[in-house]
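Deliverable D4.2, example record:
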Amino acid sequence: EYIMELQEQTLNVLKNFSDINPNILINEGNTIKTISEAKNVLATATVDNKFAQKFGIYDLKEFIGVLSLVDQPNLNFTDESVTISDQTGRSKVRYFFSPEETLTSPQKDINMPECEVQFDLDANTLTKLRNAASTLGHNEVSVTPGDGVLVLSVVDNENATSNAYSIDVPYSNKTDQDFKFVLNISNLKIIQGDYEVSISSKLISEFRNKEVNVKYWIALEKTSTFGV
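Output generated by the structure prediction step:
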């Protein structure tokens, strides 16, 4: 058995990953990965804790709830369970692991293809896009070329007359081709913060957080177009 103090940054990553997939398989070391059931969002993070063993959690939200029952949780691992206790050791919860075959875990990393478009997405812009989506009831954001800028629009792509919200962001990588890259807002389950975003015409995007060591690969919608 071994004991470790769970760091706040690790907990924040786990909370975020529980939105992507309700279960998780954590491997030895300090890298945590998850993939959505639909396989369209994959995330990986380097956390402030180093795990000495592989273990599986079937209901990550429940596990996070259990962690919040104690202050500054200390985790005492055995092969089949973890005992979560507070700093004094007076209150504790024993939590059993789930077998690996009941869990969804990424089998391999994504090799990001060459990207035609790159831009910076700050936390403020991200919030505005999310708010616009929920206010207008739209579920997609499209990325299109503007006049020397990129235009991010929250729009109903199936309805040409729908109300659209758009915000311009500076480009850092330009292509001469015309394009419309479409992302589903519900796939943007990313930790709040500033991001460097890369998009490939092979319908995959990479969101790299600038403050914390976490990256997301998010599939684009099939309605995306690039070139003619």
